[in-house]
Amino acid sequence: MSVGATWGKILHVDLTTSKIWTENPPDEIYLKLVGGRALEAYLLLRDLPVGADPLGPENLLIFAPGVFQGTNLPGAGRHSVGGKSPLTGAIGSAEAGGWWGHEFKRSGWDALVVHGQAKSPVYLWIHNDKVEIRPADHLWGHDVAEVEDAIRSELKDEKLRVSQCGIAGENLVLVANVINDYSRAAGRNGLGAVMGSKKLKAVAVRGTKNVLPTDRKSATALAKWLGDNYKTLAAWAHDKGTPGGLVGLNENSALPTRNFQDPDFPDAMSIGWETLHTSVLIGRDTCQACPIECKQVVSYDGQDYPDSPAFKTQVKGEVTLNKVYGGPEYETLGAFGSSCGVNDIVAVSKANEWTAQWGLDPISTGMTIAFVMECVDRGLLTAEMTGGYLPKWGSSKDMLEGVDMLAHRRGFGDIMALGSKRIAAWIGNGAEQYLVEVKGQELPMHEPRLKAALGVGYAVAPVGADHMMNIHDTGYSSPGRGLDRVNTVYKVGPMPSTKLSDEKMNLFYHEVNWQHFQDCAICCMFYPYDYKQLAGALSAMTGHEYDAQDILDVGERAQQLCRLFNNREGFTEKDDRLPKRVMQAFKSGPLEGVEITEKALHDARQTWYGLMGWTPEGVPTKERLDQLGLTELLETK
Amino acid sequence: MSVLIEATGSLRQYIPENTRLEAAPTVGQAIAQLQLPPDVALMMLVNRKAADWTTELHDGDVLRLMPTIGGGARHAGRAANL
């Protein structure tokens, strides 16, 4: 093998014909794309017919680790899942933490591509070179933990790992996730529905092959550096985790409240780290080879918390929490909490639990319920239209009922399962002005008026509004590691988080390429690695030299391929937009008067298109594709 | 002039209560005087309004600093052997 830490093998399974085959990609695929998102986009461009139905047999469901998986590099306990998104119609590409990706890579495959549609439910059992399609009728309709436990018991292997579509995916809910390791989600884009449409209940994996770096000494040195430094450089993650910043964001009018309407959530403390860690939190969890332990684990059985002054619940005695499904992260706290006006840490944790148990995207689910709450509030939805479901801002029970209805497509939940954009079209009557989505995907819990370039990132992200393949401007408004990292290839000083400029878009260009690279090699973005370190890691793994610019080029290749895919599916510059609501200034609070004008968004988008080598219409040029070596690659069959 | 510095979250360990700076023409210069660890990324408010590195400070202003995400040490770690 000439590319280290890879197997040279992609597994294809057609569920219509039960055919199983192996593809041996040329080295160039690994060297230029590295895996994950770039590989997914390449395979979709190559093998998916233009205009294919995302829920039809033609769509592909791709499970793609990257070069780093299976190597024990800290931060590599992740994998990617891709396909054409049924929510947006654009490319879908989502990453999940946990152990599944590590185990899959150790089974001797670099990716799994699922084609076709089974006649009745099946699951895949991949144990090293052996691949079986097994019946799953007995698993269909069961909760995530039940399915994972049943497969482990049935196959008599305690060490296998399971990725699966939940009940929501079975029900073709367009905001369904693919869940692995009980509580980890390839989140967003509705890929759980693609899995459900294929009647593929699960993919169980067990691998015993060692994925070896070419230069083990260098790779181990990076792991040792991480072990020596994560306590300070990733302190925020292992101390408090993602909920740690919630209250501070609210102080900056940046905690989305009541569907992004309000500049302040008065009960922020009740859903923040301060309450979570003094009430329902019972422990922390982690991913494969990760010492940081950023994940929350909660439990609740009706007890009181006298030492947690901001603790509130409306569901005492009615709800318990199951630690198997982990606990809420910042996105969930915002989506089911402040976005719905809910100040109840137990109810928000329960909603989070159900998203894992049934396989839902917490961001889109919470924001869809918030949108319904607003439409009810404004009289756009009546009891006749919703079968009597009239959720009110701040009601824990209404919020929870919405999650239940949506996952099971019960009553009005059958419409809610399609996401907020389709609900608005169903309502008509001007409801679309209250939408907070891009390309049909609901906004995550980050405020474009505080983080202006992040707003541009929402607009241009190939998957619809996304906060991970994006920049967070506040990380570059004062000196620190964010600026230190980018300064190795582009010199720039602290910049106001609320402003857009050519300089800011240059920063955006580099850092978004970096984020996409980390979704190709696949490394957790919470890790404090810099360009040089991951270039070194990729060199050590593959045995081929990469420098900082080389890995940024990998990230750009992923974006170029995603753009080619989206353009051929009919997306254009006009789809790279922001919802009006988050462009208009708040009338009070820290961000009073801060707006993003259409001109500022247009200019920023054009600057970035230019940096990407695209035409003003957002079309990749042959010159740039040639420079990146993509023209030649796309001609490879 | 005198500018009151308010720290929140993990920044409280570096900035004592009632810290005042007498000569800090801009937010950036004020933060530089506070000698924070180099890896702390900040959100900044001046008199409860969004501010940035170049925002000018005046007598009586309140500069409120928040870490972009909370911090602090908790466990010991161990390097993986690849």
What does it look like?
The complex is a heterodimer of chains A (637) and B (82). By secondary structure, chain A is an alpha+beta fold. Chain A folds into three domains: 10-206, Aldehyde ferredoxin oxidoreductase, N-terminal domain (Aldehyde Ferredoxin Oxidoreductase,  A, domain 1); 241-426, Aldehyde Ferredoxin Oxidoreductase Protein, subunit A, domain 2 (Orthogonal Bundle), CATH 1.10.569.10; 452-635, Aldehyde Ferredoxin Oxidoreductase Protein, subunit A, domain 3, CATH 1.10.599. Helix content of chain A is 39%, strand content 12%. In chain A, the strands form four sheets. Chain A has a six-stranded mixed β-sheet. The longest helix of chain A has 21 residues, at 502-522. Chain B has one domain (3-61). Helix content of chain B is 10%, strand content 26%. Chain B has a five-stranded mixed β-sheet with strand order 2-1-5-3-4, covered by helices on one side. The longest helix of chain B has 8 residues, at 27-34. The model of chain B is unreliable at 70-82 (pLDDT under 50). At the A-B interface, helix 7, helix 8, helix 9 and helix 20 of A face strand 3, strand 4 and strand 5 of B.
Offer a few descriptive terms.
heterodimer, A: 637 residues, alpha+beta, Aldehyde Ferredoxin Oxidoreductase,  A, domain 1, Aldehyde Ferredoxin Oxidoreductase Protein, subunit A, domain 2, Aldehyde Ferredoxin Oxidoreductase Protein, subunit A, domain 3, 6-stranded mixed beta sheet, 26 helices, 12% strand, B: 82 residues, mainly beta, 5-stranded mixed beta sheet
Q: What is this entry, summarized?
A:
The complex is a heterodimer of chains A (637) and B (82). Chain A is of the alpha+beta class. In chain A, the strands form four sheets. Chain A has a six-stranded mixed sheet. A six-stranded mixed sheet of chain A has the order 8-7-12-9-10-11. A two-stranded antiparallel sheet of chain A has the order 13-14.
Largest interface, chains and sizes? A-B, 62 and 38 residues
Question: What fold name goes in the CATH topology slot of the largest domain in chain A?
Answer: Aldehyde Ferredoxin Oxidoreductase,  A, domain 1
Q: What's the helix-strand series of chain B?
A: EEHEEE
Unreliable segments of 5+ consecutive residues of chain A? none
- How many beta-strand runs of chain A? 16
* Average residue pLDDT of chain B: 82
Which secondary-structure class do the elements of chain A indicate? alpha+beta
Number of domains of chain B: 1
What is the rounded Rg of chain A? 23 Å
Class by SSE composition of chain B = mainly beta
Largest sheet of chain A: 6 strands, mixed
Shape of chain A: globular
